[in-house]
Write a structure and sequence with these properties.
Blueprint (H helix, E strand, L loop, with lengths): L4 H10 L4 H20 L9 E2 L10 E9 L3 E11 L2 E11 L1 E2 L3 E2 L7 H15 L8 E7 L3 E2 L7 E2 L16 H11 L5 E7 L1 H12 L3 E7 L3 E7 L13 E4 L12 H8 L8 H6 L1 H15 L11 H8 L7 H11 L5 H34 L7 E6 L1 H5 L3 H13 L6 E5 L3 H15 L1
Parallel strand pairs: 2-7, 7-10, 11-14, 14-15
Antiparallel strand pairs: 1-13, 2-3, 3-4, 5-6, 8-9, 11-12, 12-13
This protein binds alpha-D-glucopyranose (GLC).
Length: 434
């Protein structure tokens, strides 16, 4: 059965955002930001205080960095040498879920199990050494409220995490308890931060003029340095970094696929922007569109963003790779013309995602500039979608140029690979140096 041409066109249009609409989205994002600065309850974003500003770039010492925010947990031992230099001395990592073996992120898993697993990994990073004192920076990449650099309390799980007993708790306390159970009390968590904040710290440590940090991966979120916020508990300089939790931005129009996916998700009504942008969801949206084209509306296929990337990059004769992926995931051998259409749809979903991310970056650049000039600056981004997804980076650049016009030359995006780990070490150093 070949796809219906009209239906295909209509679905493509659902996933297309022209310049005018994008301008509207960027303006609405900026307005939501301004509302939130006035009174956070007026914004759809959580705009969480991080209790750090920018590092000096001269932070030094050896620290542990725990990066916990996606399906892979990583622990690194990092030596900061100052002058923007550092060395990763050791790095270990493990997934929180291995299908058929274990799953620490599902509803049946408990906080104790999850943090026990993480403490075990920390133990591996320090080779079971329970004597040396290690200060640890903890990148905990979920919306959390805090009133100092240590006590981030999880508001709500995102990214389809569902482990019991963590929402409402201070993540570092759960970690400390788990370390204690392992006899590793020599590991002392001193700072907790969102991954976007970690990316900004990491980029700013190496590259001056970086004020915005973003993650474009399983999840999507952005933070920026807000110069007007000062607090006695805040480390670093230049004001305070605000973790926008803009995955929760809601003042935009989701299409019918976005709405339908949201209704069946772990947290309906939450993270609407993230569900349109991040890697966790792109494959799901594509799958829903394919189901409709195949007359199987409502059916879910396990398509992932990695599948999308492989299909978009398929350069085999007759798109054999994409055909095989679709055969495996959709359970049908599609005609070549339909495979081509699926690739067009996948591309449209990626392009939409990149354009939305770009609109949010531009909104923050505008906000920081106020009535003044847009200064030369970098937006630091980390994450698999930004790094590896075809079409993502180039469409961010293109969309930023559409929105910023002549000012586009002032702003670029830079990849800050592994910033989540490095930023955690920098935060720990900022605390210990004070
Ligand atoms: C989700 C989390 C947020 C995190 C982002 C990227 O949006 O809520 O805290 O920064 O994913 O990992």
């Amino acid at each position: 059965m070949a796809f219906n041409e009209e239906q295909f066109k209509e679905i493509m249009a659902e996933f297309t955002i022209d310049t005018e609409r994008l301008q509207g989205i960027a303006a609405s994002f900026r307005q939501d930001l301004q509302l939130g600065l006035r009174d956070v309850s007026l914004s759809s974003m959580r705009m969480l205080k991080s209790y750090v500003g920018l590092p000096s770039g001269n932070e030094k010492g050896e620290y542990l960095a725990l990066d916990f925010g996606g399906t892979n947990v990583r622990v690194s031992k990092i030596r900061l040498d100052g002058g923007g230099k550092y060395e990763i001395l050791k790095r270990v990592g493990r997934p929180l879920i291995v299908p058929g073996e274990y799953d620490y992120i599902c509803k049946d898993a408990t906080a104790e199990q999850m943090f026990g697993f993480i403490a075990e990994l920390i133990d591996e990073a320090i080779d079971g050494d329970h004597d040396t004192k290690y200060y640890l920076g903890h990148t905990f990449s979920f919306p959390s409220t805090q009133d100092n650099i240590y006590n981030a309390r999880l508001i709500i799980w995102t990214k389809e995490f569902a482990t019991q007993g963590v929402e409402g708790k201070v993540a570092n306390d759960l970690l400390v308890e788990a370390l204690k159970r392992r006899g590793a009390e020599n590991v002392v968590p001193v700072a907790v931060l969102n991954d976007t904040v970690a990316v900004l710290l990491s980029a700013a440590y190496k590259t001056p003029d970086t004020f915005i940090g973003s993650i474009y991966a399983t999840g999507h979120n952005t933070c920026y340095l807000e110069p007007s916020i000062h607090d006695a508990n805040c480390f670093g300089s230049g004001g305070m970094i605000l973790n926008l939790e803009c995955g929760n931005f809601m003042k935009l129009m989701p299409n019918r696929f976005d709405r339908e996916y949201d209704e069946g998700s772990e947290k309906p009504g939450e993270q609407r922007f993230e569900k349109m942008v991040s890697g966790r969801y792109m494959g799901e949206l594509l799958g829903m569109a394919i189901a409709e084209l195949l007359g199987e509306k409502g059916k879910r296929y396990a398509l992932t963003s990695v599948d999308m990337s492989m299909m978009i990059l398929d350069d085999t004769e007759n798109l054999q790779r994409a055909t095989d992926i679709l055969m495996a995931k959709v359970g049908r051998e599609l005609e070549l013309d339909d495979v081509k259409k699926v690739i067009k749809l996948a591309s449209a979903i990626v392009v939409r995602s990149a354009r939305l991310a770009a609109a949010s970056f531009v909104a923050i650049v505008w906000q920081r500039a106020g009535h003044g000039k847009i200064v030369r600056q970098h937006v630091a981004v980390d994450g698999s979608v930004y790094e590896k997804m075809p079409l993502a980076k180039e469409n961010i650049v293109k969309a930023m140029a559409e929105l910023l016009g002549d000012d586009a030359a002032q702003v670029d995006t830079i990849l800050d690979n592994g910033g989540s780990g490095l930023g955690a070490a920098i935060a720990a150093a900022m605390v210990k140096a004070d």
